[in-house]
Model the fold of this input.
Amino acid sequence: MDITSFWNRVKVLCRENRISQKDLSMRLGYDERTIEVRMARGNYPGVEDVEKMSAIFGVSSDFLIEGKEDVAERKNNS
Done:
């Protein structure tokens, strides 16, 4: 997993879904600055966090991790 690309996809999805990094942190059950700090440090997320983010954004885990997704899957999640 290219961590920079992962966090860039998360940033884009936050913008598209009008979710702030603070809101995403809170939805994941963390302190309000956790996601911001993890992005800045280039920390790898845990499997559970990737699964939660994919559910929040309505995308596959594969999309978050590799940038690949099944278009039909994204439509079904919308």
Q: What stands out?
A: The two ends are 25 Å apart (CA to CA). The chain has a mean pLDDT of 89. The helical segments are 3-16, 21-27, 34-41, 47-57, 61-66, 71-77.
